[in-house]
Structures are given as structure tokens and as C-alpha cells.
Amino acid sequence: MTADLARQVMEISRETSRQIGLIINRRGIIEYVIVGDNHRIEIPPLKHERTGRARFRGVRFIHTHLRGELLSREDLTDLALLQLDLVACITEMPGERGETIHAGYLVPENKAGRMWDFMEPVPVTELDVDFTEFITELENEFVRDRGKFYVTKEKHDRCVVVSVVLPGREKHVDDYTAEMRDLCYSAGITVVDTVVQRPKELHPRYLIGRGKIEEIVIKCQQAGADLLLFDEELTPGQIKNISAITELKVIDRNQLILDIFASRANTTESRIQVELAQLRYIMPRLTEKSTAFSRLMGGIGGRGPGEQKLEVDRRRVRDRISFLERRLTDICKVRDKKRERRRASLIPIVSIVGYTNSGKSTLLNLLTKSRVEVEDKPFSTLNPTTRIMKYPERKKIILTDTVGFITHLPEVLLRAFMATLEELEDAHLLLHLVDISAADFEDRIDSVENVINSLGLSHKKRLTVFNKTDKIDRTFIPNVEKRYNAVSISAFKKEGIDRLVTAVEGALAAGNPVLCTDD
Fold first, then answer.
1. Which of 147, 158, 240, 397 has CA atoms 20 to 30 A from the CA of 419?
2. Average pLDDT of the residues of the chain
3. What is the rounded distance in angstroms from the CA atom of residue 440 to the CA atom of residue 280?
4. What count of other Cβ atoms lies within 10 Å of the Cβ of residue 93?
């Protein structure tokens, strides 16, 4: 910015009583000339894309102020949201001769909590900055501050989780945000920060206020996050509006869960079920023709059907849903025949149900001496697994592992996995496995009970089993066992298993099913 150019731009601004802005690239070429009004100026959509998480856009914004003021909050918000190299204003300060320039730039997150810093206002004639050297060093500072995670071709997405807590929902906020972090871990996402917002009511356009959104986006950029994850379901319009003021991928909790299911679906049936759930979720969002929708494609929130299927029109999606439903019906017919053979065998059936990551697969392996894959992640099991349990001698029990439940399970997922959950209808006993080490285990019990009741299985006999006793102080276990008429075990430590089996046999005998022998 030479003194002659600054003077010329300022003269035009005074003559027109309008703010004048210049977008200048790193070669010093003016790419845009923007005309605002007397009070403000609006930057149009820019063609430049960021080249990496620690890189800026490659353009700086220099504009005029007509009333002698320095950079405004709006200027600095544009700087952060658009990831500009720098923003500056040219103004005429009272008592000063000639044009004064005031510049601001982003800084890495620091102890003072500042998001930006400034160059002192100086007359344009005295401005002496090697811009190439300045911006190179600034970007290198961001790289050093963010560390090894900020490689452009990094495998994992990095996100900021936004937890929206309405009045009356303050209970177990920490546990709920911890669950969101666990879901992110299961999806292969690195959580760089968690922001808890407590609005009095949900904002119809942005879920929370626009100002809060802008603060969160700036936090994402400081931390190098490329994904904004909300724990509340977002409407298509909210995704569009939030994306309009950010350059981040924006998804909600339901999309995250769908993505986890898509990444773990490894059988024909589970892949069909996941695709059905995703297509049903996407259907109402196909009307949103915007970059917000395009940012859902690929990566986190876009696995399963894939980019090509996500862009089809509503009619083709409906046709695809119908086709998948027919295929699922055919699979269910095969499953029904297997269930009929089981019923004819008169072997008692026990189904393990429970909150996700409560240890169901570990218990199945322990009781049946199987090798079902076990991971300490939510939704590690999607497909029902059935094994024969021989314990004690010469007695058989069919043991079934099911998909884990979760608070506010998306309806599209519940519908898609209804065929899988129909396995529970044949069960003589439901083993409700509970992770007693979870601080909110009581709420989790209620969540699972609600799902069981919604499936019309409230009449099924249930035995509550508290797992992971090795992770807690055991002095309070007798009281909670008495309260829930439960049995406590540690599947990992193989503790309490004989007591559990005795309780299962007692519950089955009370229901009068035949305990079959090898004869």
C-alpha cells in the first residue's frame, strides 16, 4: 500500500461518502475493488481457498474509514471468519496530517485469550513492512503452535464439539460431552475443544446466536479444526446458515452416529440398513441447494451411500429406498427361518441388551468361548451375533449379542435396525448389561428401557447385570444391586460369572422354558 494509492482511495471515498475496499493478493495485485456505504462494507465470496489448516487465504483486505475510527469489531470478525492474511483500514486521525493506516492480524491462541493482534496506527508514508516476510513468519508461528497435528494431509478430521444445554438439562453435562468425545474417537475424529453453550432458547437460524457461532468458528481456526460438530440435531436450514458464515464442515450428532455405523458395517445386511438410514436422513435435506450441502459429501458425515448417491434427486432416492427395503425383506425371510428352527429346538434364548460400550461383546465371548471382535469404542457391534452357551454341563442356552443403544437414538437408525432388533422378540430373557462405572448409569438404564418399551417388549423378563465393577469403589454395589435386583460382574476380570450364570438359569427356570441337554 503506497502513500499515493492510499491518498487516491481516500479521496474517492470522501467524494462518494462511501467506504472503498481493496482485496490484494500476495503478489501485490489488486483482485477486487469493493464499494460499501458510509458505515460499512461487505466482502463478497472470495475465490481463494485455504491451502492448509495453518495457512491463510493468501489475500489481505485494505479499506477506508470515513470518521477517523480504527479497525472495528466487524473488521476483525471478517479477518477471522475469512482467514485473511491481514485486514487494515485507512483513515484520517484527528490532529494528524495525511492518511493513517491501522492493521490487524490473527495470532495463535495464547494465555491472554487474544485472537488477533495489531500493528500500531502509523501514517501511510511511514509504513515500512516486508509483507512477504511478515506473513511467512506468521504462518510458521501457527504451524509451530499447533504442533504435529497440523499437517495438511493429516488422516484424522479435527473438530470442536458444541454442546447445547437448555434450561432443565444441566444434569450430567460433563458425562454427555464425554460421550460425544467417545463417539468422535469411534469415528476417528480428534476433538480439539468442547464448547458448552447454555442459551435460554434455541435460535431458529443458527441453533445458538450468530455471535456465539462466530466466536466458536474463530476458536476452530485457532485450534486448526476443520469440523464443527453439534450435539443437537440441525435442520437443513441451520446447516446452510451456519455454513454460510464459516468454511468448516458442519454436522450434527445424528450424522456422526450414522457415519460410525457406515464405517463399521461389514455385512450385506448391516450395509443395507446403514444406507437406508442415511438416505432417509438425507431425503429432507435434498432441497437445500447450497455449499452447505456440498460440504456434507465425503469424509465424516458422508460415508456409506457416497457422494454420487447423495446428489441424486428425491425420486431416485425414494426408488433406492424401496429397492433396499425389498432386499432387507428378503434377508429377513432367511432370518425368520433360522428363528423358527431355534424356536422348534426349544433351546432357551437369552439376548444381551444395553447401552453402547457397556461390554456386551466381551461378555458374549466370555460365556460362549467365542472370539467376536471387541473394541473399547461405541457401536463396535452392529450385527446380531448368536452363539451356543454350554454352562453348566450338558445344558444349552442360545446367547445373542445386539447393537448398543444410546440416548436419543436417531429415529432413522431405529427404523433401519428394526429387523435386527426383532431378534429380541424371541428371547426368553433379556440381559440388560449396565456399565456401572459410568456416572450417569441410571440415565443410561432409563434410555435402554425406553427403547425396549418402544419396541413393544416391555413384557419381556429382564435381568439387570452391572458390569465393570473393577473400575469403581465396590462398597456401594450391594445397595445398588438390591435396588435394581441385579447381579454385578467384571467381564474383563472374569469376576462374578458363576453367580451370573446361576441367576440366568434361575430366571429361565421361572419362565418355564426347557433347558435342553445334549440328549
1. 397
2. 79
3. 31
4. 15
Closest C-alpha to 434, from 407, 393, 464, 392? 464
How much of the chain, in percent, has pLDDT values that exceed 90? 15
Cell of 257: 452416529
Residue bearing cell 492448509: 52
Ordered DSSP codes for 337-404: HHHHHHHHHT--EEEEEEBTTSSHHHHHHHHHT------SSTT---S-EEEEEE-STT-EEEEEE-PP
Q: State the pLDDT at residue 48.
A: 60
For Cα atoms 323, 325, 331, give the angle at the middle one, nearest 5 degrees. Answer: 110
Enter the DSSP assignment of 300. Answer: T
Q: Is residue 116 within 8 Å of 79, Cβ to Cβ?
A: yes
H or E element that contains 251: strand 249-252
Position 102 confidence tier, pLDDT thresholds 50, 70, 90: very high
Please write the tens of the pLDDT for every residue from 296-344: 445 555 555 544 444 556 778 888 889 988 888 888 787 777 767 766 6
Transcribe 104-115 into DSSP letters.
Answer: EEE----TT--S
Provide the grid cell at 180: 460425544
Residue 392 pLDDT: 57
Residue 37, SS3?
A: coil
The residue assigned the cell 429382564 is 462
Confidence tier at 295 by pLDDT (50, 70, 90): very low
Q: Which domains does the chain have, with CATH numbers?
A: 3-149 (no CATH), 157-258 (3.40.50.11060), 264-318 (no CATH), 346-510 (3.40.50.300)
Under 8 Å between Cβ of 356 and 379: yes
- Collect all residues with Cβ–Cβ distance below 8 Å to 488 and sequence separation of at least 6: 436, 465, 466, 467, 469, 477, 481, 496
Give the mean model confidence (pLDDT) for residues 88-96: 82
Write the DSSP symbol of residue 52: S
pTM: 0.69
Q: Helix/strand/coil (H, E, C) string of 469-506?
A: HHHCCHHHHHHHHHHHCCEECECCCCECHHHHHHHHHH
Share of the chain above pLDDT 70, in %: 79
Cβ within 8 Å of residue 356, ≥6 positions away: 378, 379, 404, 405, 406
Give the number of other CB atoms < 10 A from CB of residue 36.
18
- CA nearest 163: which of 181, 136, 189? 181
**Residue with more model confidence, 311 or 473:** 473
For residue 309, the model assigns a pLDDT of 45
Burial (0-12, 13-18, 19+ Cβ within 10 Å), 392? exposed
Predicted confidence (pLDDT) at residue 42 exceeds the cutoff of 50: yes
